[in-house]
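Re: the 124-residue chain
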Amino acid sequence: HVQLVESGGGSVQTGGSVRLSCTASGFTYSTYCMGWFRQAPGKEREGVAAIDTDGDISVPDSMKGRFTISFDNAKKTLYLQINNVKPEDAAMYYCAAEIVPRGILCTVDRGFAYWGQGTQVTVS
């Protein structure tokens, strides 16, 4: 079965950078949509970015500018680079995945069947 394991979180200084990783295993299909989400205490979960098998990226307008999503297919690892970290970036970050046919729109607004346990980012 599909497993997603996030890592790379921790304490980051305001203005600094951090790269989160999500290692995927159990994929038996070749086409998918993967995304990063975050949830701060007392707030709803929000989508950060999504990427599909072809490398097409979708980023909500509210997240454009400081977040970069990428996927290393050889390593089956999803990344999220956060630059110029701000206090409001403090949250639990989750990666998610969904098996989709090639060509299907991949955005954070779609449903995702598989979720990781999350990695915490704190901002000092």
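The mean pLDDT is 94.
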